[in-house]
Amino acid sequence: FGESAPAGELFKHFGFTVENILNTANELLG
Questions:
Q1: Tens-place pLDDT, residues 1-30
Q2: What is the Cα–Cα distance from 27 to 6, expressed in whole angstroms?
Q3: DSSP collapsed to 3 states, 7-27
Q4: Burial class (CB in 10 A: 0-12, 13-18, 19+), 11
């Protein structure tokens, strides 16, 4: 990404938190 922030912060910044992933998966799987 060319970012100097820790991976965890990058994931949060781009919305890739575990909670968001689980919520999206639940919506897709219904």
A1: 565 767 777 667 676 777 888 888 899 998
A2: 29
A3: HHHHHHHCCCCHHHHHHHHHH
A4: middle
**CA count, 13 A, side-chain hemisphere, 7:** 0
Q: Which residue has the tokens 């991976």?
A: 7
Predicted TM-score of the model (pTM): 0.41
Cα–Cα distance between 27 and 7 in angstroms, integer? 26
What is the structure's pLDDT at 28?
Answer: 92
Q: Which amino acid is at 24?
A: T
